Amino acid sequence: MSSTIKVTVLGAAGGIGQPLSLLLKLNPYITELSLYDVVNIPGIAADLNHIDTNVKINSFIRDNNEPKGTNTQLINALKGSDFIIIPAGIPRKPGMTRGDLFNINASICNELATFIAIHSPNSFILVISNPVNSTIPIFREILNNYGVFNPLKLFGVTALDNVRSNTFISNLIDNSLPKDFNVPVVGGHSGHSIVPLFSQLDKSYKILDDNNIYDALIHRVQYGGDEIVEAKNGNGSSTLSMAYASNKFFNIIINGYLNLDNNNNNNNNCQISSYIYLDDSINGMKELKTGLMEILKGTKLEIPKYLAIPMNFDINGIKNVDYKWIDKMNEKEKELFVIAVGFINQNVEKGLNFVYK
Ligand code: NAD
Ligand code: LMR
Fold first, then answer.
1. N or C: lower Cβ tally within 10 Å for the chain?
2. How far apart are CA 173 and CA 217, in angstroms?
3. Strands, E assignment, 47-187
4. Which atom of ligand 1 is nearest to 156's Cα?
5. Which candidate, 127, 111, 128, 107, places its Cα nearest to that of 119?
6. Residue 335, SS3?
7. Buried b (16+ CB within 10 A) or exposed e, 38-70
8. pLDDT tens readout for residues 117-171
9. Considering the domain boundaries, does residue 1 fall inside one?
10. pLDDT tens digits for range 178-213
11. Domain that residue 341 falls in
12. Strands 6-10 and 32-37
């Protein structure tokens, strides 16, 4: 492990990119923060540079005079990155689904994945750009076609679903705080593909015996993104809560990467879900797939190639995936999970068609 940690943010001038870069500038484990965008980066970097923390800021803006296919600034931004976090892409407006972002964001992801494959293939890659259910398959295929795909290091960032679940259940339980909860969320990151597993909390909560309350809670997590899109009324989607959520996810990865788990956290806090390619080489995958086969038995659905599942991390990326949640799901969660897999398989297909059209 290097004693320095370089983190690169692609899309750093955006609604998520700016507050996320601020949070990363405060991180004691990061030595260098590399900020890349196609607009506005010099001013943002100058601003962050006045903060008296030790993280060194470097900034890069695309030079539109360069011929298509070359991008010296992006190459320089990526060089030597340990972690790349990607909030590049357009956000939703009211009335849009995440799927409506596909055409533009798939092209952006295509470009970024290609440069990463060539210039920084060993980095951890954390993709925020929506629709995550389809952009991760695009990243995976491009990296794989260059022969550099590492299944332990490519992550769709779905941490906001965990953050929302913790907040929304806490809102319902008297005398509780969001920090009292760590709800595992599986599936994908879009509407009915999101499945929060409230059954897996340490305690059961009487209030969830009321089906109307339980259903409304699940619906709020699944469609929490819409609440923000509507409230922002044409000015984008979640940015501040997403910057928080992606920073939370990054910190959990860093805890595993630097082996801080035993000192700083109990095991529960070191686990979080991410949307990944279900590669057979990952620890726990055999058991996970056996469980998935059991749940999907009798449906016409294939085992998904990608899924958000809880996992732990170490210096190599994913240390292991958790599969115990499958047997512990209640009947409602099992039904929701089957519905989720149907959507995810379609979203994955869309990503693959983009790459191989
Ligand atoms: P934004 O429009 O405010 O910012 C996006 C940034 O990407 C802009 O600064 C833009 O210049 C930049 N960009 C565009 N093309 C680029 C390219 N080719 N290379 C580098 N940068 C490029 O949008 P936002 O609100 O920050 O959202 C960004 C993305 O994150 C959206 O797709 C949104 O749907 C998604 N999102 C995901 C989650 C999640 O949970 N995974 C949560 C919120 C938002
Ligand atoms: C969210 O869940 O807030 C994000 O995926 C953004 C969106 O489009 O809702």
1. C
2. 12
3. 56-61, 83-86, 124-127, 154-156, 185-187
4. 41
5. 111
6. helix
7. beebeebbeebeeeeeebebebbbbeeeeeeee
8. 999 999 999 999 999 999 999 999 999 999 999 999 999 999 999 999 999 999 9
9. no
10. 999 999 999 999 999 999 999 999 899 999 999 999
11. 159-355
12. parallel
Residue nearest to atom 41 of ligand 1 (CA): 128
Does residue 220 line the site of ligand 2, with CB under 6 A?
A: no
Residue 224 lies in a domain: yes
CB 280 within 8 A of CB 286: yes
Q: Do residues 178 and 110 both lie within one domain?
A: no
CB 206 within 8 A of CB 221: no
Tens of pLDDT along 301-337?
Answer: 999 999 999 999 999 999 999 999 999 999 999 999 9
Give nearest CA residue, ligand 1 atom 8: 14
Known catalytic residue: 189? yes
In the chain, the number of structural domains is 2
Name the closest-CA residue to atom 44, ligand 1: 238
- Does pLDDT of 9 surpass 90? yes
